[in-house]
Amino acid sequence: MNIILFDDDKYIDFLPLVYTRPIGALRCGIFTINEKWEKALNAPVSFFTKPYLEPKFPQVWAEDNYLINARFLPSGETVQYIEKLEFGDSLWQGDDLIAARIKDEGSLSREDKNNFYQNLLGNKIKLSNENDVIELKSVWDLFLKNDVALRLDFKSLTKDKVSQRTPEGVNIIGSEIFIEKGAVLTFATLNTTTGPIYIGKDTVVMEGATIRGPFALLDHSQVKMGAKVYGATTVGPHSKIGGELNNVVMQGYSNKNHDGFLGNAVLGEWCNLGADTNNSNLKNNYTNIKTWSYKKNGFADTGLQFCGLAMGDHSKTGINTMLNTGTVIGVGCNVFGAGYPRTFIPSFSWGGSGGRMVHKPNKFFETAEIVLQRRGIALDDIEKVILSYIYKETEKYRT
Protein backbone atom coordinates (compact mmCIF):
# COMPACT_ATOMS: atom_id res chain seq x y z
CA MET A 1 0.00 0.00 0.00
CA ASN A 2 1.38 3.39 -1.05
CA ILE A 3 -0.48 6.43 0.29
CA ILE A 4 -0.53 9.81 -1.43
CA LEU A 5 -2.30 12.62 0.41
CA PHE A 6 -3.72 15.07 -2.12
CA ASP A 7 -4.85 18.68 -1.74
CA ASP A 8 -8.24 19.29 -3.34
CA ASP A 9 -9.80 22.58 -4.50
CA LYS A 10 -10.53 23.60 -0.89
CA TYR A 11 -6.78 24.05 -0.34
CA ILE A 12 -7.24 27.83 -0.47
CA ASP A 13 -9.41 27.75 2.67
CA PHE A 14 -6.37 26.62 4.69
CA LEU A 15 -4.22 29.63 3.85
CA PRO A 16 -2.03 31.14 5.22
CA LEU A 17 -0.75 27.95 6.92
CA VAL A 18 -0.62 25.98 3.66
CA TYR A 19 1.49 28.55 1.86
CA THR A 20 4.46 26.66 3.33
CA ARG A 21 3.14 23.08 3.51
CA PRO A 22 0.49 20.74 2.10
CA ILE A 23 -2.74 20.24 4.03
CA GLY A 24 -1.46 16.76 4.89
CA ALA A 25 1.49 18.20 6.82
CA LEU A 26 -0.74 20.21 9.18
CA ARG A 27 -1.01 19.24 12.84
CA CYS A 28 -4.41 18.67 14.43
CA GLY A 29 -4.50 16.74 17.69
CA ILE A 30 -1.13 15.20 18.57
CA PHE A 31 -0.04 13.98 15.13
CA THR A 32 0.21 15.72 11.79
CA ILE A 33 -2.32 14.43 9.24
CA ASN A 34 0.30 12.41 7.36
CA GLU A 35 1.46 10.83 10.64
CA LYS A 36 -2.13 9.84 11.40
CA TRP A 37 -2.52 8.03 8.07
CA GLU A 38 0.89 6.36 8.34
CA LYS A 39 -0.15 4.94 11.69
CA ALA A 40 -3.71 4.04 10.65
CA LEU A 41 -2.73 2.15 7.48
CA ASN A 42 0.84 1.16 8.40
CA ALA A 43 2.17 2.45 5.10
CA PRO A 44 4.43 5.24 3.79
CA VAL A 45 2.85 8.58 2.93
CA SER A 46 3.80 11.24 0.38
CA PHE A 47 2.08 14.40 -0.84
CA PHE A 48 0.25 15.58 -3.96
CA THR A 49 0.37 19.34 -3.55
CA LYS A 50 1.27 22.61 -5.26
CA PRO A 51 4.23 22.34 -7.68
CA TYR A 52 6.36 24.90 -5.80
CA LEU A 53 6.13 22.76 -2.64
CA GLU A 54 7.11 19.49 -4.32
CA PRO A 55 10.89 19.80 -3.79
CA LYS A 56 10.20 19.68 -0.04
CA PHE A 57 7.08 17.47 -0.14
CA PRO A 58 7.51 15.14 -3.16
CA GLN A 59 5.03 12.72 -4.70
CA VAL A 60 6.00 9.05 -4.55
CA TRP A 61 4.08 6.74 -6.89
CA ALA A 62 4.07 2.95 -6.84
CA GLU A 63 2.25 0.20 -8.67
CA ASP A 64 -0.57 0.26 -6.10
CA ASN A 65 -1.58 3.74 -4.89
CA TYR A 66 -4.17 4.91 -2.42
CA LEU A 67 -4.88 8.61 -2.98
CA ILE A 68 -6.49 10.10 0.12
CA ASN A 69 -7.93 13.59 0.51
CA ALA A 70 -5.73 15.29 3.11
CA ARG A 71 -8.73 17.14 4.58
CA PHE A 72 -10.11 13.88 6.00
CA LEU A 73 -8.73 12.36 9.18
CA PRO A 74 -8.59 8.60 9.70
CA SER A 75 -11.51 7.31 11.74
CA GLY A 76 -12.33 3.64 12.23
CA GLU A 77 -15.07 3.42 9.62
CA THR A 78 -13.31 5.54 7.01
CA VAL A 79 -10.14 3.46 7.31
CA GLN A 80 -12.13 0.24 6.89
CA TYR A 81 -13.74 1.46 3.67
CA ILE A 82 -10.38 2.54 2.24
CA GLU A 83 -8.75 -0.80 3.03
CA LYS A 84 -11.49 -2.57 1.00
CA LEU A 85 -11.08 -0.46 -2.17
CA GLU A 86 -10.30 -2.30 -5.40
CA PHE A 87 -8.39 -0.76 -8.31
CA GLY A 88 -10.41 2.11 -9.78
CA ASP A 89 -12.77 2.30 -6.80
CA SER A 90 -13.41 5.59 -5.05
CA LEU A 91 -14.91 6.68 -1.74
CA TRP A 92 -17.04 9.83 -1.56
CA GLN A 93 -18.97 11.97 0.87
CA GLY A 94 -21.34 14.11 -1.14
CA ASP A 95 -19.28 15.79 -3.88
CA ASP A 96 -16.02 15.35 -1.97
CA LEU A 97 -13.66 12.54 -2.96
CA ILE A 98 -12.25 10.96 0.20
CA ALA A 99 -10.06 8.27 -1.33
CA ALA A 100 -9.32 6.29 -4.48
CA ARG A 101 -7.16 3.32 -5.43
CA ILE A 102 -5.20 3.70 -8.67
CA LYS A 103 -2.83 1.34 -10.43
CA ASP A 104 0.32 2.78 -11.98
CA GLU A 105 2.80 0.55 -13.79
CA GLY A 106 4.67 3.46 -15.28
CA SER A 107 1.89 4.05 -17.80
CA LEU A 108 0.43 7.16 -16.20
CA SER A 109 1.92 10.39 -17.51
CA ARG A 110 2.38 13.45 -15.35
CA GLU A 111 -0.79 14.87 -16.89
CA ASP A 112 -2.69 11.66 -16.10
CA LYS A 113 -1.55 11.82 -12.51
CA ASN A 114 -2.60 15.46 -12.20
CA ASN A 115 -6.05 14.43 -13.50
CA PHE A 116 -6.34 11.17 -11.60
CA TYR A 117 -10.10 11.71 -11.16
CA GLN A 118 -10.46 10.49 -14.76
CA ASN A 119 -9.01 7.10 -13.82
CA LEU A 120 -11.73 6.29 -11.29
CA LEU A 121 -13.49 3.65 -13.38
CA GLY A 122 -14.55 1.27 -10.62
CA ASN A 123 -17.20 1.36 -7.92
CA LYS A 124 -18.19 4.76 -6.58
CA ILE A 125 -18.91 4.25 -2.87
CA LYS A 126 -20.99 6.96 -1.20
CA LEU A 127 -20.87 7.57 2.55
CA SER A 128 -23.91 9.02 4.29
CA ASN A 129 -23.78 11.86 6.81
CA GLU A 130 -24.27 9.23 9.52
CA ASN A 131 -20.91 7.64 8.82
CA ASP A 132 -18.01 8.31 11.16
CA VAL A 133 -16.13 10.87 9.03
CA ILE A 134 -13.87 13.64 10.37
CA GLU A 135 -13.49 16.37 7.76
CA LEU A 136 -11.51 19.60 7.94
CA LYS A 137 -13.12 22.37 5.91
CA SER A 138 -10.94 25.39 6.71
CA VAL A 139 -7.95 26.56 8.72
CA TRP A 140 -10.29 27.28 11.65
CA ASP A 141 -11.22 23.58 11.85
CA LEU A 142 -7.72 22.89 13.14
CA PHE A 143 -8.79 24.26 16.53
CA LEU A 144 -12.49 23.34 16.16
CA LYS A 145 -11.68 19.64 15.55
CA ASN A 146 -8.67 19.57 17.87
CA ASP A 147 -10.67 18.09 20.74
CA VAL A 148 -11.82 14.99 18.86
CA ALA A 149 -8.48 14.61 17.04
CA LEU A 150 -6.45 14.87 20.25
CA ARG A 151 -8.56 12.26 22.02
CA LEU A 152 -8.20 9.81 19.12
CA ASP A 153 -4.46 10.39 18.88
CA PHE A 154 -4.00 9.98 22.63
CA LYS A 155 -5.78 6.63 22.55
CA SER A 156 -3.69 5.45 19.59
CA LEU A 157 -0.37 6.75 20.90
CA THR A 158 -0.63 5.39 24.43
CA LYS A 159 -2.06 1.97 23.62
CA ASP A 160 0.02 -0.79 25.23
CA LYS A 161 2.55 1.78 26.53
CA VAL A 162 3.49 2.59 30.11
CA SER A 163 3.65 6.18 31.28
CA GLN A 164 6.52 7.59 33.29
CA ARG A 165 5.67 7.96 36.97
CA THR A 166 4.18 11.28 38.02
CA PRO A 167 6.91 13.33 39.74
CA GLU A 168 6.48 14.11 43.41
CA GLY A 169 4.74 17.42 44.03
CA VAL A 170 2.75 17.40 40.77
CA ASN A 171 -1.00 17.52 41.35
CA ILE A 172 -2.91 15.19 38.99
CA ILE A 173 -6.71 15.38 38.89
CA GLY A 174 -8.17 12.33 37.15
CA SER A 175 -6.20 9.52 35.57
CA GLU A 176 -6.03 9.98 31.79
CA ILE A 177 -2.46 11.23 31.58
CA PHE A 178 0.64 9.96 29.79
CA ILE A 179 4.16 11.24 30.49
CA GLU A 180 7.02 10.27 28.18
CA LYS A 181 10.58 9.63 29.30
CA GLY A 182 12.72 12.69 29.86
CA ALA A 183 9.79 14.96 30.76
CA VAL A 184 10.38 17.22 33.78
CA LEU A 185 7.34 18.45 35.73
CA THR A 186 7.63 20.60 38.85
CA PHE A 187 4.75 21.52 41.19
CA ALA A 188 2.20 21.86 38.38
CA THR A 189 -1.52 21.00 38.36
CA LEU A 190 -2.88 18.84 35.53
CA ASN A 191 -6.65 18.23 35.33
CA THR A 192 -7.67 15.34 33.09
CA THR A 193 -11.36 15.29 34.02
CA THR A 194 -12.10 17.38 30.90
CA GLY A 195 -9.86 15.36 28.58
CA PRO A 196 -6.57 13.44 28.32
CA ILE A 197 -3.16 15.07 28.81
CA TYR A 198 -0.07 13.98 26.88
CA ILE A 199 3.39 15.17 27.94
CA GLY A 200 6.05 14.40 25.30
CA LYS A 201 9.73 13.50 25.50
CA ASP A 202 12.24 15.92 27.00
CA THR A 203 9.57 18.48 27.80
CA VAL A 204 9.42 20.86 30.77
CA VAL A 205 6.34 21.90 32.75
CA MET A 206 7.44 24.53 35.24
CA GLU A 207 6.13 25.25 38.71
CA GLY A 208 2.73 26.86 39.06
CA ALA A 209 1.49 25.84 35.60
CA THR A 210 -2.20 24.85 35.53
CA ILE A 211 -3.41 22.72 32.62
CA ARG A 212 -6.83 21.32 31.75
CA GLY A 213 -7.20 18.63 29.09
CA PRO A 214 -7.44 17.77 26.34
CA PHE A 215 -3.83 18.91 26.04
CA ALA A 216 -0.70 17.77 24.24
CA LEU A 217 2.83 19.05 24.82
CA LEU A 218 5.06 17.61 22.13
CA ASP A 219 8.74 16.73 22.33
CA HIS A 220 11.27 19.35 23.51
CA SER A 221 8.60 21.94 24.38
CA GLN A 222 8.07 23.97 27.55
CA VAL A 223 5.24 25.35 29.66
CA LYS A 224 6.48 28.38 31.60
CA MET A 225 5.84 29.23 35.27
CA GLY A 226 2.28 30.12 36.16
CA ALA A 227 0.85 29.37 32.71
CA LYS A 228 -2.92 28.75 32.46
CA VAL A 229 -3.94 26.39 29.67
CA TYR A 230 -7.44 25.30 28.69
CA GLY A 231 -8.16 22.51 26.22
CA ALA A 232 -8.30 21.52 23.58
CA THR A 233 -4.75 22.81 23.10
CA THR A 234 -1.79 21.33 21.23
CA VAL A 235 1.74 22.68 21.57
CA GLY A 236 3.87 21.36 18.73
CA PRO A 237 7.51 20.25 19.13
CA HIS A 238 10.27 22.69 20.14
CA SER A 239 7.80 25.35 21.33
CA LYS A 240 7.33 27.43 24.48
CA ILE A 241 4.13 28.75 26.04
CA GLY A 242 3.29 31.08 28.92
CA GLY A 243 0.38 33.27 30.00
CA GLU A 244 -3.14 32.08 29.15
CA LEU A 245 -4.15 29.83 26.25
CA ASN A 246 -7.56 28.43 25.33
CA ASN A 247 -8.13 26.02 22.41
CA VAL A 248 -4.88 26.73 20.55
CA VAL A 249 -2.99 24.65 17.98
CA MET A 250 0.71 25.48 17.49
CA GLN A 251 2.31 23.56 14.64
CA GLY A 252 5.79 23.62 16.19
CA TYR A 253 8.98 25.67 16.65
CA SER A 254 6.92 28.64 17.87
CA ASN A 255 6.87 30.66 21.08
CA LYS A 256 4.33 32.40 23.25
CA ASN A 257 6.67 32.81 26.18
CA HIS A 258 5.01 35.59 28.15
CA ASP A 259 1.78 36.79 29.72
CA GLY A 260 -1.11 37.61 27.43
CA PHE A 261 -4.15 35.74 26.11
CA LEU A 262 -4.29 33.53 23.02
CA GLY A 263 -7.57 31.78 22.25
CA ASN A 264 -9.24 29.84 19.41
CA ALA A 265 -6.07 30.24 17.41
CA VAL A 266 -3.79 28.40 14.97
CA LEU A 267 -0.09 29.24 14.68
CA GLY A 268 2.32 27.95 12.07
CA GLU A 269 6.02 27.27 12.63
CA TRP A 270 8.71 29.78 13.63
CA CYS A 271 6.16 32.22 15.05
CA ASN A 272 6.85 34.39 18.10
CA LEU A 273 4.34 36.40 20.13
CA GLY A 274 5.92 39.30 22.04
CA ALA A 275 5.24 39.93 25.73
CA ASP A 276 1.63 40.85 26.52
CA THR A 277 0.36 40.04 23.04
CA ASN A 278 -3.40 39.49 23.33
CA ASN A 279 -6.00 38.35 20.86
CA SER A 280 -9.75 38.76 21.09
CA ASN A 281 -11.77 35.66 20.29
CA LEU A 282 -15.30 37.02 20.93
CA LYS A 283 -16.98 40.17 19.64
CA ASN A 284 -18.54 42.57 22.14
CA ASN A 285 -21.97 42.11 20.53
CA TYR A 286 -21.59 38.29 20.43
CA THR A 287 -22.37 38.09 16.70
CA ASN A 288 -20.64 35.84 14.18
CA ILE A 289 -17.06 36.71 13.33
CA LYS A 290 -16.01 37.65 9.81
CA THR A 291 -12.47 36.84 8.71
CA TRP A 292 -10.40 37.30 5.58
CA SER A 293 -11.25 34.76 2.88
CA TYR A 294 -8.54 34.13 0.29
CA LYS A 295 -11.15 32.43 -1.88
CA LYS A 296 -13.47 35.45 -1.94
CA ASN A 297 -10.64 37.99 -1.79
CA GLY A 298 -12.55 39.72 0.98
CA PHE A 299 -14.13 39.15 4.35
CA ALA A 300 -16.62 36.34 4.92
CA ASP A 301 -18.81 35.15 7.78
CA THR A 302 -17.22 32.16 9.53
CA GLY A 303 -20.45 31.20 11.32
CA LEU A 304 -18.36 31.14 14.49
CA GLN A 305 -18.93 33.08 17.70
CA PHE A 306 -15.42 32.27 18.96
CA CYS A 307 -12.56 32.79 16.51
CA GLY A 308 -9.18 34.31 17.32
CA LEU A 309 -6.08 34.16 15.14
CA ALA A 310 -4.56 32.33 12.18
CA MET A 311 -0.85 33.09 11.75
CA GLY A 312 1.40 31.82 8.97
CA ASP A 313 4.99 30.65 9.37
CA HIS A 314 7.81 33.02 10.35
CA SER A 315 5.47 35.76 11.62
CA LYS A 316 5.93 37.71 14.84
CA THR A 317 4.31 40.31 17.07
CA GLY A 318 5.98 43.01 19.18
CA ILE A 319 5.26 43.62 22.87
CA ASN A 320 1.75 44.77 23.85
CA THR A 321 0.31 43.86 20.44
CA MET A 322 -3.52 43.80 20.44
CA LEU A 323 -5.19 41.56 17.84
CA ASN A 324 -8.89 41.74 17.12
CA THR A 325 -11.26 38.80 16.61
CA GLY A 326 -10.66 36.69 13.52
CA THR A 327 -7.28 38.16 12.62
CA VAL A 328 -5.42 36.52 9.73
CA ILE A 329 -1.66 37.15 9.53
CA GLY A 330 0.26 35.80 6.56
CA VAL A 331 3.79 34.42 6.23
CA GLY A 332 6.88 36.42 7.18
CA CYS A 333 5.13 39.30 8.96
CA ASN A 334 6.39 41.55 11.76
CA VAL A 335 3.42 43.16 13.53
CA PHE A 336 3.91 45.85 16.17
CA GLY A 337 2.79 49.26 17.42
CA ALA A 338 -0.05 50.77 19.46
CA GLY A 339 -3.71 50.17 18.65
CA TYR A 340 -5.32 47.33 16.74
CA PRO A 341 -3.78 46.41 13.38
CA ARG A 342 -6.10 45.42 10.55
CA THR A 343 -7.65 41.96 10.80
CA PHE A 344 -5.99 40.90 7.56
CA ILE A 345 -2.23 41.37 7.35
CA PRO A 346 -0.76 40.18 4.02
CA SER A 347 2.35 38.06 3.94
CA PHE A 348 5.70 39.85 4.24
CA SER A 349 4.23 42.93 5.93
CA TRP A 350 6.13 45.08 8.44
CA GLY A 351 4.20 47.39 10.80
CA GLY A 352 0.78 47.69 12.40
CA SER A 353 -2.11 50.10 12.93
CA GLY A 354 0.08 53.08 12.07
CA GLY A 355 0.76 51.71 8.61
CA ARG A 356 2.97 49.03 7.16
CA MET A 357 5.83 48.52 4.75
CA VAL A 358 6.97 45.51 2.76
CA HIS A 359 9.20 43.05 4.61
CA LYS A 360 11.78 42.58 1.86
CA PRO A 361 13.09 39.02 1.30
CA ASN A 362 16.72 39.88 1.96
CA LYS A 363 15.88 41.32 5.40
CA PHE A 364 13.46 38.48 6.08
CA PHE A 365 16.08 35.84 5.26
CA GLU A 366 18.62 37.51 7.56
CA THR A 367 16.23 37.15 10.51
CA ALA A 368 14.99 33.68 9.55
CA GLU A 369 18.54 32.32 9.36
CA ILE A 370 19.29 33.56 12.88
CA VAL A 371 16.02 32.14 14.24
CA LEU A 372 16.60 28.70 12.73
CA GLN A 373 20.25 28.60 13.78
CA ARG A 374 19.15 28.95 17.41
CA ARG A 375 17.49 25.54 17.01
CA GLY A 376 20.40 24.05 15.11
CA ILE A 377 18.61 24.17 11.75
CA ALA A 378 19.85 25.77 8.52
CA LEU A 379 17.66 27.79 6.19
CA ASP A 380 18.42 25.79 3.04
CA ASP A 381 18.00 26.72 -0.61
CA ILE A 382 14.78 24.71 -1.00
CA GLU A 383 13.18 26.70 1.81
CA LYS A 384 14.39 29.97 0.33
CA VAL A 385 12.91 29.14 -3.07
CA ILE A 386 9.55 28.31 -1.48
CA LEU A 387 9.50 31.50 0.58
CA SER A 388 10.56 33.60 -2.41
CA TYR A 389 7.68 32.13 -4.41
CA ILE A 390 5.25 33.00 -1.61
CA TYR A 391 6.60 36.56 -1.56
CA LYS A 392 5.79 36.99 -5.25
CA GLU A 393 2.48 35.12 -5.02
CA THR A 394 1.20 37.38 -2.22
CA GLU A 395 2.29 40.70 -3.74
CA LYS A 396 -1.29 41.35 -4.93
CA TYR A 397 -2.49 41.53 -1.32
CA ARG A 398 0.17 44.03 -0.27
CA THR A 399 -0.87 46.50 -2.97
Strand percentage, roughly? 25-35%
Please identify the top-level CATH class of the largest domain.
Mainly Beta
Kindly report the CATH topology of the largest domain. Answer: UDP N-Acetylglucosamine Acyltransferase, domain 1
Q: In terms of per-residue confidence, which ranges show pLDDT below 50 for 5 or more consecutive residues?
A: none
Oligomer classification: single chain
Q: What's the β-strand tally? A: 35
Helix amount: 10-25%
Structural class: alpha/beta
How many structural units, i.e. domains?
Answer: 2
- What name goes with the CATH superfamily of the largest domain? Hexapeptide repeat proteins
Give Rg in angstroms: 21 Å
Give your account of this protein's structure.
- The strands form 7 sheets. Strands 9, 10, 12, 13, 15, 16, 18, 19, 21, 23, 28, 31 and 33 form a 13-stranded parallel β-sheet that branches. Strands 2-1-3-6-5-7 form a 6-stranded mixed β-sheet, covered by helices on one side. The chain has a 5-stranded parallel β-sheet with strand order 11-14-17-20-22, with no helix packed on it.
- The chain has 8 helices and 35 strands.
